[in-house]
Amino acid sequence: MNLIVQGRDIPTPHLKQLARLTAARAIEAVSPTAFRLVAADGGPRAEVAAFCEANALDHGWVPATRRITDFGLLVMDMDSTLITIECIDEIADMQGLKPEVSAITEAAMRGEIDFAESLRRRVSLLEGLDESALQRVYDERLQLSPGAETLLAAARAAGIRTLLVSGGFTFFTERLKPRLALDYTAANTLEATGGKLTGRLRGDIVDAQGKADWLNRVRAELGLTREQVIAMGDGANDLRMMAEAGVSIAYRAKPVVREKASYALNQVGLDGVIPLLG
Fold it and tell me: What is the DSSP letter of 173?
């Protein structure tokens, strides 16, 4: 195995300590924020995890034979993963209801409330809001997570197709699709009448199972195996989707997600996914 160590500023003594701990054969710089410890002994995994946690480092054990071209599909959550905001919270802010909606969002992401029910409750609070508020959120508040474009460029270069699947809204996924040259998108549709949101959704809800279903649908369409799929997210409603992937990545995620993912990135941006793919 190779040990990938990532952080915003990694002191050389930290790398040397990890190399001694794992009897690594060499230390290779992968990027300004990532290093590869070659042929590392995986025995002291608990010690490595404790050291990295104490020193604000991300780490991941990667098979030495893995290559990025082994993968064929990258599946991404949108809110707080590909982008920095929770769109529904920012829409609610236009109604002066952000604290109420954010509290429901947080509970849902921790897995304390059924996602579909939480979404209906939050959307109902948006009744009467001008549709133009959605464009304002997109124009004024939506930002890509650090490293997002670097990750997507690396995926395209490796021939990996991309699926953005969100418990958020098609208004945003359909604008991000051409902007980022994404191959597939899926999300929920807000109902509107006369330029006003009705507080309801149209069609089936893309919830935790819906995300997993979309992953498997696109995977089958592309003729890929489970091991050729990467899935990343941050909330409890991403867990079923992530369980269907060969590699799952928790990005600045809730504890319940970090515990079940193949890798967790808390210190670096989405470009930190790249070294984990070989």
Answer: H
